[in-house]
C-alpha cells in the first residue's frame, strides 16, 4: 500500500483528538497543584469534547478500533459532566429563597444594573466579591440598602473586599483570618425557616499561586464542615475554580451541594465577560446544605468581568442534610 499523506494526516488528527479527550478526563480527576495542570483543568470539558471528533474521524475512515477507543474516552467524558444536567426538581416543600452572587470587578460594575436585578428577581441574599469602599457608596446611592437593608461588609482595595446583603436581619458575623482576600459569614433570620448560615467566599485565583489556591479551598472546606448542623446553609462566592477542579468538588461535597448540579442547570459559564470572546469557564458558584436548588442561571452585569449567578433554593427547617445529588466526585 502506497503512503497516503492525507490518510496519515486524518489518522493523526483522530488520535490527537482522542488523546486530548483522555487528557480532559484525567484533568477532571487530577488533584495536582501544578499551575499548568490546574489552569488546564479549567478547560477540561472542551478537551473532553474533542473525543467526539475522534469518533467521527475514525468512523469516516472505517477504523473501528479507533472508533471504539475514542468512544470509550467520549463516554468517560460524558459521565464526568452528566451530574450538571441530571439534577431533579424540588419537592415543592419548604420556603423558596433567591440568592445572588456577584463579582463587581472592584468598583467597575454598574451599581444601578445590579440593584435593578436584585429588585426584579426578588433577591433576598446577595453575596459580593471585589467590593471596594467606592462600590459600597455607589450601591447605597443606587438603592441597594433600601432593598436589602441588612448587611455585613468587609470592603477592601481591588479584589480583597467581600460583602453580604440581606433582606433579613443578620447576626453572628464573622470574618475569617489568614486568607489573602476577605471571607465572611453571618446568620440570617429568615421567616418560616429560622436561622440560616450565610457564607461569602473568595479564594485567590490559581495564577496567584496554585499551592495557596489549593490550601485556601481546603481551609474553606474546613470552615463549611464546622457550619451549624441544625440549620440550612447558603454559600456564594467567586471560587476561582470550576466544577472540573477536584479541589472544588471536594468542597462541594458531604452535606453541601453545588446549586447548579442540584438544579441540573448545566455548564453555567461566568468568566470572563470583558473580552472579545464570550465567557468560557464557570468559577462563580452557589452552594447549599439543608436545601435544594430548583433553578440557577447567570445574569449579565455591565462593567463587571463576571456574570452574576442567581439561584432559587427551597429551604426547610430540617437540620442541614443534603437533600439533593451532590454530583460526581
What does it look like?
The protein has 329 residues and is α+β, with helices and mostly antiparallel strands. It folds into 2 domains: 80 residues, no CATH class; 221 residues, Endonuclease/exonuclease/phosphatase (Deoxyribonuclease I, Chain A, 4-Layer Sandwich). It is built from 10 helices and 12 strands. The strands form 2 sheets. Strands 3-4-2-1-12-11 form a 6-stranded mixed sheet. A 6-stranded mixed sheet has the order 5-6-7-8-10-9. Helix 1 runs antiparallel to helix 3 and helix 3 runs antiparallel to helix 4. The longest helix has 25 residues. GO terms for molecular function: endonuclease activity. It comes from Nocardia fusca. This is Endonuclease/exonuclease/phosphatase family protein.
Outline the fold blueprint.
Elements: H1 5-29, H2 35-41, H3 44-60, H4 64-81, E1 95-103, H5 111-120, E2 125-129, H6 133-141, H7 144-147, E3 150-154, E4 162-166, E5 170-175, E6 184-190, E7 194-201, H8 210-225, E8 233-238, H9 246-251, E9 257-258, H10 259-263, E10 284-289, E11 291-299, E12 308-315
Helix content: 25-40%
* Broad CATH class of the largest domain: Alpha Beta
Please describe the biggest sheet, giving its number of strands, its sense, and whether it closes into a barrel.
Answer: 6 strands, mixed
Q: Which strand order does the major sheet show?
A: 3-4-2-1-12-11
Amino acid at each position: 500500500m502506497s503512503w497516503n499523506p492525507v490518510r496519515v494526516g486524518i489518522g493523526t488528527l483522530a488520535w490527537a483528538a482522542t488523546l486530548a479527550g483522555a487528557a480532559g478526563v484525567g484533568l477532571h480527576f487530577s488533584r495536582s497543584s501544578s499551575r499548568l495542570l490546574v489552569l488546564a483543568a479549567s478547560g477540561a470539558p472542551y478537551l473532553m469534547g474533542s473525543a467526539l471528533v475522534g469518533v467521527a474521524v475514525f468512523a469516516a475512515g472505517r477504523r473501528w478500533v479507533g472508533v471504539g477507543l475514542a468512544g470509550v474516552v467520549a463516554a468517560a467524558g460524558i459521565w464526568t459532566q452528566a451530574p450538571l444536567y441530571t439534577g431533579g426538581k424540588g419537592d415543592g416543600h419548604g420556603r423558596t429563597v433567591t440568592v445572588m452572587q456577584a463579582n463587581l470587578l472592584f468598583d467597575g460594575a454598574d451599581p444601578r444594573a445590579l440593584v435593578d436585578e436584585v429588585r426584579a428577581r426578588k433577591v433576598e441574599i446577595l453575596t459580593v466579591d471585589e467590593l471596594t469602599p467606592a462600590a459600597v457608596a455607589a450601591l447605597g446611592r443606587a438603592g441597594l440598602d433600601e432593598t436589602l437593608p441588612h448587611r455585613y461588609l468587609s470592603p477592601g482595595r481591588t479584589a480583597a473586599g467581600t460583602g453580604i446583603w440581606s433582606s433579613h436581619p443578620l447576626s453572628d458575623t464573622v470574618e475569617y483570618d489568614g486568607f489573602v482576600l476577605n471571607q465572611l459569614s453571618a446568620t440570617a433570620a429568615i421567616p418560616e425557616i429560622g436561622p440560616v448560615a450565610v457564607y461569602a467566599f473568595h479564594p485567590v485565583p490559581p495564577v496567584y499561586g496554585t499551592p495557596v489556591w489549593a490550601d485556601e479551598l481546603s481551609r474553606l472546606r474546613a470552615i463549611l464542615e464546622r457550619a451549624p448542623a441544625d440549620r440550612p446553609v447558603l454559600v456564594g462566592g467567586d471560587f476561582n475554580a470550576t466544577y472540573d477542579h477536584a479541589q472544588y468538588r471536594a468542597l462541594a461535597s458531604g452535606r453541601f451541594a453545588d446549586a447548579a448540579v442540584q438544579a441540573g442547570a448545566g455548564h453555567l459559564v461566568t468568566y470572563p465577560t470583558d473580552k472579545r470572546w464570550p465567557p468560557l469557564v464557570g468559577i462563580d458558584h452557589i452552594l447549599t446544605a439543608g436545601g435544594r436548588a430548583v433553578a440557577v442561571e447567570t445574569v449579565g452585569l455591565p462593567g463587571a468581568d463576571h456574570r452574576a449567578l442567581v439561584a432559587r433554593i427551597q429551604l426547610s427547617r430540617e437540620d442541614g442534610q443534603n437533600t439533593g445529588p451532590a454530583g460526581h466526585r
